[in-house]
Specification:
The structure holds two protein chains of two kinds. Chain A is mostly helical. Chain A contains seven helices and no strands. In chain A, α6 runs antiparallel to α7. Chain B starts with 20 loop residues before the first strand and ends in a 9-residue tail after the last helix. Chain B is of the alpha+beta class. The chains are: A mainly alpha, B alpha+beta.
């Protein structure tokens, strides 16, 4: 491993979507135990600067790998696809229809302060998230199809963003119920 | 038994060469200093056996200041020259204080046009909050040096987790003025977690509820095998025991039928002191009598605990909202929390404890003194940072977070988030800009901190002016700006034009607080304008730095010379000798040149060593574990 390596190599992890998160946590702590600036509080300026760079690098790599969606986006990028590219708006028609239906359902539930409907929507999103995650994993780790993975990741990103709207609607619905 | 005794740079001290380092809790109401002696952390009392130093400074006409108990005792008859609760003014602007405290601040301020910095008019002249805090820190440093019998190599100074960049920088400036080498700015709840975690050997997810004299923090931490990982932090740097005192004073005035305007400054200061005592008494009594004077007439009011609780309910509710947001940010529920640690004198109020117990569904941990626990944790961390712990004797690691998001101003006064709150520090992010005019060589970046979308709703931190961009046609330059937050939670930025690889120079204009030049001037002033004293100190610091880099490089070579080839080792030894030759001379520039050459010469080596140590760690073959 090297500071220039990709995030997986940096922690000595295999470059796959399916990840042993306990092993990642351990590797992260091992690395930080070696490189954190607190280990160099009395060292020279050069070592302190190097420690700052490495600890920063370790935090960044960990932040990306720890979260499944960020990890998926990152892996797609490593394989030459960029799911976050806003110019690329390709998305299958049925999923666009699904998005519209969800948005409508949320608007209605919000207007009625219908906590149950909002919770139902939330559960639906959870199921979709699980399904997409499974499809991304298969596309990346089994089929080596980065293009398909990237398209599914884009859907996943929508589910994530929309999930935040649903969560905030759920909070205000609970607040107004009190 | 260890097969090899490996010295990390600056880590393993020679026997009998213990480096004295202390933890300082610079509080709103009280400050204290603690140190690890014979392996045990303890607070250091003054010569009268008192541990808490009231954070009060009184300026006299002859230019001197009294600090602590003496200052506080005179506050009642000299309120304008006796500065208390200065922590609430650190790194803040005059306009913010008016909003924050209404008419509660009765000092005389100088109105300034420049950096929106607060300045008090005192009998001894104009003073800034940084200088007032420096007086408190210098008193504690002196106490530590007298008690421990030697100079300090440095201190860990605690700050509220929710302090923003300007407030942290102001604290560091104050330490510098007080002649203290800051080993680390440590978040107060994290310090408390260290004290509890090491003392009780606890594991799991804990919440730290820290209600101090003037600030409130709540941090959620995960403790795993000596790693203290902050998951989220929340709080309010303008909410603390002071506010409960103020409510109680207001209640007493109401009950006695007296308006605020009937009290002069001195009467106000005395009522504030009585209110604080009454608050403390209400922890045991159900009703107290508050006596005070208004326009020279004796008055008193009977304040019941129920009335006090009702008058402060909203303050308690605000702390619980922050706790709720902390949990939300950590993606956790109340049921995930294994325990709640209470920190800060204000958590002694029974209704605060009861509210925390209700919220978390379990009685909070209160067995370590809430006034001392932060200083004790800071002392443990200072001892570790100074390198006093033997290798392998149970090291721990603190992974803290940035409390508020950092952003930059974009078109239309919007704040674009660069670094999200609760990111683990150190953290860096890059951003790319281009020029919009032909031949443009400068640009400005406005950095703000806060969660709101409009720049005007966030706190302005600083304006950075980038200069020295190579002139090109509009849109051709690629300026990569890097925002780096270090382990103290302090921001720095650097910029580089990537097509020409030219580093831009940066001029920082802090929105609040002191600029570097002003700190340098104050430092100089503190030496009675004697230029020679300043030079002696600078020389001494350079000599210490020379000794330190020689020691560190020798240790590094002893451990990892195998990473270098012969000519590299020879070159490094030459550079070490060059430093040694001048290290004890009085030629400041010669020492600096030799030290800089050695520092530069060891850069690659430092990277190789870091790389090697990470490899060893990941391979699970740390040499000091081979027994």
């Amino acid at each position: 491993m090297d500071i220039q390596d990709n995030h997986f190599a940096f922690f000595g992890m295999p470059e796959r979507f399916a990840l042993d998160t306990a092993a990642l946590d351990r590797a992260y702590r091992e690395v930080q135990s070696q490189v954190h600036p607190d280990r160099f509080a009395r060292a020279g300026a050069t070592e302190q600067r190097v420690a700052l760079q490495w600890a920063t690098r370790a935090n960044e790599a960990y932040r990306v790998l720890r979260e499944p969606l960020k990890r998926a986006i990152y892996l797609c990028t490593l394989r030459g696809e960029d799911p976050a590219d806003e110019r690329d708006t390709r998305m299958a028609g049925p999923f666009l229809m699904q998005q519209l239906a969800w948005r409508e359902a949320l608007d209605e539930a919000r207007d009625r302060h219908d906590s149950a409907a909002i919770a139902g929507l939330d559960a639906e999103l959870d199921a979709m998230r699980d399904r997409l995650q499974g499809e991304v994993e298969a596309a990346l780790d089994r089929d080596g199809d980065a293009k398909l993975a990237s398209e599914r990741v884009r859907r996943w990103m929508f589910v994530e963003r929309f999930g935040e709207d649903v969560a905030s609607a759920a909070r205000s619905a609970t607040a107004s119920a009190h | 038994m260890a097969l090899l005794q490996i010295s990390e740079p600056g880590m393993a001290p020679a026997p009998h060469q213990r480096r004295l380092a202390v933890g300082i809790d610079l509080g709103t109401t009280n400050s204290l200093v603690a140190a690890v002696r014979n392996g045990v952390a303890g607070v250091l009392p003054d010569e009268d056996g008192r541990v808490l130093l009231p954070s009060a400074v009184r300026y006299r006409e002859d230019g001197t200041a009294s600090i602590g108990h003496d200052a506080l005792a005179r506050r009642g008859d000299d309120p304008r020259n006796t500065i208390v609760s200065v922590k609430r003014l650190m790194g803040r602007g005059r306009d913010e204080v008016a909003v924050d405290r209404g008419d509660a601040w009765r000092y005389e301020f100088v109105e300034t046009t420049d950096s929106n910095q607060i300045r008090f008019v005192t009998a001894a002249g104009v003073r800034t909050p940084v200088e007032v805090s420096a007086e408190i820190l210098a008193t504690l440093r002196q106490r530590a040096e007298d008690t421990l019998g030697d100079d300090l190599v440095g201190a860990v100074i605690t700050v509220p987790a929710y302090f923003d960049d300007a407030q942290r920088q102001a604290t560091k400036d104050a330490a510098q003025l007080a002649g203290i080498n800051v080993l680390r700015l440590l978040n107060e709840p994290t310090a408390a977690a260290v004290a509890y975690g090491l003392d009780h050997g606890i594991e799991g997810v804990y919440a730290v509820y820290d209600l101090g004299g003037g600030t409130f923090d709540v941090s959620i931490l995960r403790l795993t095998k000596g790693v203290f990982e902050v998951l989220a932090t929340g709080g309010d740097t303008a909410l603390g025991g002071d506010d409960f005192d103020a409510r109680l004073a207001r209640l007493a005035l109401q009950i006695a039928g007296v308006t605020d305007a009937m009290l002069d400054d001195a009467e106000h200061a005395r009522l504030a002191a009585h209110a604080r005592r009454a608050k403390e008494e209400l922890s045991d009594a159900s009703i107290v009598d508050v006596a005070f004077e208004a326009s020279g007439v004796h008055r008193h009011a009977a304040v019941s605990r129920d009335a006090f609780v009702a008058a402060t309910d909203d303050l308690v509710a605000r702390t619980l909202q922050a706790a709720e947001r902390g949990l939300h940010d950590a993606h956790l529920a109340v049921t995930d929390i294994a325990g709640v640690v209470m920190v800060g004198g204000a958590t002694r109020m029974p209704h605060v404890r009861a509210a925390v117990e209700r919220f978390f569904g379990r009685p909070p941990l209160i067995d370590l003194d809430p006034d001392r626990v932060v200083a004790l944790g800071a002392a443990m961390q200072a001892d570790a940072l100074a390198g006093n712990r033997a290798p392998g004797s149970g090291d721990w690691l603190l992974l803290d977070v940035i409390p508020l998001s950092l952003g930059v101003e974009t078109m239309g006064g919007l704040a674009e988030k660069i670094i999200a709150r609760n990111s683990t520090i150190p953290v860096a992010r890059g951003q790319e800009f281009t020029t919009f005019k032909d031949g443009q060589t400068a640009m400005a970046i406005h950095v703000v901190q806060g969660e709101r979308e409009l720049v005007s709703d966030c706190r302005s931190l600083a304006r950075f002016e980038l200069r020295g961009i190579p002139p090109m046609t509009a849109g051709a330059a690629r300026i990569r700006v890097t925002y780096q937050v270090d382990a103290d939670g302090l921001l720095s930025i650097s910029a580089r034009e990537t097509t020409s690889n030219v580093e831009a120079s940066i001029i920082v204009k802090p929105s609040y607080g002191l600029g570097d030049e002003e700190v340098a001037r104050m430092l100089k002033d503190s030496f009675g304008a004697a230029d020679s004293d300043m030079r002696v100190r600078a020389l001494r610091e350079q000599q210490v730095e020379a000794a330190r880099i020689v020691e560190a490089t020798e240790a590094a070579l002893a451990a990892d010379a195998a990473l270098l080839d012969e000519p590299q080792i020879t070159r490094m030894r030459c550079q070490i000798d060059a430093v040694r030759k001048v290290a004890n001379s009085d030629d400041h520039d010669a020492i600096k040149d030799a030290v800089d050459a050695l520092a530069h010469g060891t850069e690659k080596f430092a990277e190789l060593r870091m790389d090697a140590s990470v490899r060893r760690a990941l391979a699970g073959k740390r040499l000091d574990e081979i027994a």
